[in-house]
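A quick word before the example. In earlier lectures we treated sequence and structure as two separate objects. From today on, think of them as two lines of the same record. Here is Ankyrin repeat protein written that way.
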Amino acid sequence: MNELREAVAFDIGDTTWSARNKPQGDFLISCCANLVVVDPADNCVRFAHSSVRQYLDEASLIAGYPTAEQGELECGEHCVTYLCFSDFSLQPTRYSAKRVVVEVRPRVFFTQEAFRTGFKRFLCRIHGNRNRRGSMVFHTLSTASTPNQTQYGFLRYAIRNWALQTKSLSPTSLVWEKFKQLALCSNETWNFHPWGPHHDGSQESHLRGLFGWAVMEQHKPLLSIAKATGPLLELVCDRLLIGERLPALHFASKFGYESIITALLDFCRVNGRDHQRYTALHHAAGKGHLKICELLLSAKEIEVDAQCYSKCTPLWLAAGNGHHDVASLLLKKGANIEAMDRHHQYTPLSQAAKLGHVAVVELLVDKGADIEANSKLRRSYIASLSNIKAKGVIDRTPLSCAAEKGHVAVVNLLAEHGANVEAQDRKSWTPLLLAAGNGHEAMVKLLVEKGANMEAKEKDGGQTSLACAAWNGHEAVVKLLIGMGADIDAKAKFERTPLSLAAGKGQEAVIKLLIDEGVDIEAKDVDQRTPLCWAAANGNEAMVKLLIERGADIEAKTNWGRTPLLWAAERGRKAVVNLLIEKGANIEAKTKFSFTPLLSAAEKGHTAIVELLLEKSADIEAKDGNSRTPLSWASGGGHKAIVELLIHKGANIEAKTNFGRTPLSWAAEKGHKPVVELLVKKGADTKAMDNFSWTPLS
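And the structure line, produced from the sequence above:
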């Protein structure tokens, strides 16, 4: 309420403050026709109801009724007037006796690297003589003390809003000169500028803050004042804005501040670079600001194909972000349509295709972009060595890039323009393989209809499109490919079929589909592992159950004699072990090295599996080819819980291997102190000698 009383107590033509003019609060509220009330909680004036704002907004449509913008400007003018009252000793027209002279040496004094901003241009204009010295005089305001904000109720509001509410201020305003002086003058005692205090108190620092704030707030009146400082502005215009990592022109271009770009182009370097070596055109093109791009491109010295650190050009960014009109404009200005980035060697067409921007793709193709652009053909041997991480992805054509991401419209467009649907990258991945591996059903259908080879294989794993889809669990794609005639038992690397691959990854739905389609359920890979072996090893109980129910051989052995039960026991798959035993799996099945499921579980430290197998009557004294028992393996592995369990179940604590070694001997050799202590406690013979007369503790 106190702020409002002071705000209406003076006019913009006043020069001094008079508290006698403040109206009483009750009188002020009564003048507002009951539209506002005073909140007793904080003494603030608020609308009487939320509908009041709507009423005022609708009333603004009446001819001659003040608009919200007019009201804001009037508030701003009052703030400026208030701050310039002589009562505060601010008085922008009254300077202190302190006179600061900044001497500027001749331009020949400076090297090219010392000043990369507009400072050199400023130097060139001083007296027009390179051999003379120049100087500039700066003034500061004389203020006796910081104004008492408790005495002046409107002061806090005025300081906070004088700049924010004068964005539409005209030079014809009655307060323009006061506004100008308020903006340009710094103060020795208290800060009233929204761009904050200046770290060195210099006029240059003050101007930098004013200019930066004007740009970020799109404050054209303040910008015009900064611009009027002439050569001095060139000292700061290309520096980073305070609190930002961008210079002014870059900032305005990035955020689409079209209204101030024209003014900035008068003194900012159009080809200046930021920390990423982006120009202003990079930012405008990447964000799709067409009008700003037009303004920037109107500059004679503009670099249309400027490259940043990653070698992206403005066209590359515009294409990658789907900005059709900006890309079209840049092409008209001669932008390089085949410019590649550093990381993936993508052209604008590849980038647009990868991200699914069909309109931009069509534009680039119509303008003659290489539809089969393949970076490998454009890179030297040395360049390829320097970018090893990019191998396997940089050789993809635009169509491959689009297929991988599932952009059907883009692929269809490129194919209609003659793009090769069988193009292979360095690892022999075709568009169909990429689409199938990523589960893009519609894309797979389109490519097959366009003649793509369903049996083409990638280089590393030798997988077909069906195998890729099965491996990644894309049931719909698997079903589609089978329906279109794909080989259901095609062998990949190591002789693995789609069913084997799906079982290895635990793709239950795909396995069911493949079995329903009549796949060979006993197909073996190069190690003679069946799909059931793969499923058991991965611990997928439902999948194991399904395969067994469909007739899979529960005792199928690999080249090393491992059955599904042995695989599950070795990997610690308790649920699968239990299921296989219930389905009749041989609990004493042995590998070529005479390992039983119990021996494998004891060696690997799977306590729960050991306990389960013992409950199912597994031979606790089973021996491998070297006559090592489960207790011997558990002791040598340091698996104390299993050792304790086996001893409790009656395992022979002195069982010897072919070389006469006991469980204690193995535990001692491996340094498993807790197991040694347990065995000794259980009565193990510490003096038992092996075939070489070594005791456990020797």
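Notice the following. The beta strands are 36-39, 44-47, 95-104, 134-141. We will return to this example when we discuss secondary structure assignment.
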